[in-house]
Amino acid sequence: MHIDANHYTTRPTGQRIPQELAIYDRLEELAIPYVRVDHDHADTIEICREVERVLGSKICKNLFLCNKQQTDFYLLMMPGDKPFKTKYLSAQLGCTRLSFAGGGHMGEYLQTVPGSVSALELLFDTGNRVRLVIDRDLLADEYISGHPGISTSTLQLRREDLLRFVESTGHPPIYVDLPDPRVEEP
Q1: Are 75 and 106 in contact (CB under 8 A)?
Q2: pLDDT at 1
Q3: Do 116 and 150 meet the contact criterion of CB atoms below 8 Å apart?
Q4: Which ranges in the chain belong to alpha helices (H)?
Q5: Which terminus of the chain is less hemmed in, N or C, by CB atoms within 10 Å?
């Protein structure tokens, strides 16, 4: 596992995928500052924990979900250490039970692959097929981090700046209050 412990505040140089460059273009257009950390593909919890240590803030969990008919798509952002139970989200959204959407839909609507999805890829959903859903618990953090199109970098943005970014893509968030299934209800 390799993580560059340096913090960068500019776009990377060298060969990068077009989606990543488009995200940096939009961040610059909106004058949104960020801190970037480069690393191996963050496809394990261990790598994500190490990236969190280097950034000094938590990485949120980004789940790409759909209804049974695969006609409604959602990108759920929630605290990374909070377990996800689909029944709570389905009830709050008033839809049929949700499940994880396939990589094909993720590629088609968000131009990314499983393990790399974040709210930054909403830039590519010009048809507004994906609804952004944010667990309010995530808003307790000053920073929200996500991958810019591919999981070999992580960007740390102020919460307000990330929200401004997603609003600029035409994806106003739906806010939900997901209970923590680890906490027993009275």
Answers
A1: no
A2: 64
A3: yes
A4: 18-29, 45-55, 86-93, 103-110, 159-168
A5: C
Q: Which of 106, 116, 126 is nearest to 154 (CA)?
A: 116
pLDDT for 47 equals 82
Q: What's the rounded Cα separation, in Å, for the pair 169 and 24?
A: 14
Cα angle 157, 182, 77; round to 5: 25
Euclidean distance between CA atoms 152 and 45, whole angstroms: 14
- Dihedrals phi, psi of 164, to nearest 5 degrees: -65, -40
> Which pLDDT score is estimated for 185?
55
For residue 58, give every residue at least 6 positions away whose Cβ sits within 8 Å of its Cβ, in sequence order, or none.
52, 79, 80, 81, 141, 143, 145
- Residue 84 CA to residue 153 CA, distance in Å, equals 24
> What is the crossing angle of helices 18-29 and 159-168, to 10°?
110
Write out pLDDT tens, residues 8-18.
999 998 899 99
Whats the size of the chain, residue-wise? 186
Beta bridge partner(s), residue 180: none
